[in-house]
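Quick one: co-fold with cobalt (II) ion.
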Amino acid sequence: MSEPSPVPSGREPMRPGRISALRDVPASIVRPHYVPKRPDQPWDFDDPPVKTAEIVEKMRVAGRIAALARDEVGRHVAPGVTTDELDRIGHEFLIEHGAYPSTLRYKDFPKSLCSSVNEIVCHGIPDDLPLQDGDVVKIDVTAFVDGVHGDTCATFFAGSPAEDVRLLSERTHEAMMRGIKAARPGRPVSVIGRVIEAYAKRFGYGVIRDFTGHGVGPSFHTRPTIWPYDEPRATTLIEPGMTFTIEPMLTLGGYAWDMWDDGWTIATRDGSWVAQWEHSLHITEHGAEILTAA
Ligand code: MF3
Ligand code: CO
Ligand code: CO
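Sure, here it is.
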C-alpha cells in the first residue's frame, strides 16, 4: 500500500491571478488609524492586553459582524466563482453593516479579506481565477467597527472535497476548539498551542509555526502572541479581560512555506493543502467567550 499523498492529484498548483482595483468605502464608515497611513503612526498600537468592559462590548459587535460576513462569503464559495467576487461580497456586507474591512490597506494589503486556496497557507489575495471543484478555501475576514477589530476565519469547499481534505478541515476546527477550551485564567498561553499541536500530531498533520494568533481589539495585531504549538517562550499568563485570537493552520504535509513575489501569499513548500479556522476570544473567569460566533 502506498502512503497517502499530501498533494491531491488532478489540480494544478495555485498561481497569481489579476487583482482588481481598490474598492471604495463610503465616507460615512470610520476608518482605522492606518487608513491612510501616516509616517508618524505605527500599523498597530501596543494595547494593554486586558481590555475594559466597554471595549469588550464593542468587540462583541465587531466580532458578530465579522462572523456574519465570513459565513455570507462562505455561502458563495463554489466552482467557477472567483476569489475577487468573494471579496466583493465580503466588502459589501461589511460596509452595509457599518464596518470597515480591516485588511483593506493594512500594511498595504489590497483587499477586504484574505482568500487562501488549497496549498496557500494564509494571506492569499483575492484575484480573478475561478475556484475548481474540490478546492479548499480559507476565508479570513476582519471587521473594524466603533474603534475595534473582530477577526475570524473559516474553511469552505468549492463543490465536493476529497475525504482527506474534509477531515483536515474538521480536525483543524476541533484543534481550534480544544485550544479555546484550554484558554483559562491562570494558565500560560502555551497551553493553547500544546493542545492544538498534540491533537494535530495524532493525525500526522503539519502545524504551521510562523503565523500565530494575536491580541486583538483597538489594534488588529498586538500582544499576546498565541503560538499554535508548544512554545516554551509562551509564558504570559492568561487573565480575565484579555482578548486574543486562536487561529491554527494545519497541513496534510509539512510546515515549511514560501512567500510569493507579491509579498503576501504564503504557500506550503511541499504543496500540501491547508485548513485554517480562527475565532476572536474574550477571557472570562470561567474560560473563553467566542466573540466571532455567528
Ligand atoms: N486576518 C489575518 C489574521 O488572522 C490578518 C490578515 S492581515 C492582511 O491575523 F494584511 F493580510 F490582511
Ligand atoms: Co488573526
Ligand atoms: Co484573521
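If it helps, The pocket of cobalt (II) ion (ligand 2) is lined by residues 151, 214, 245, 247, 278 (CB under 6 Å).
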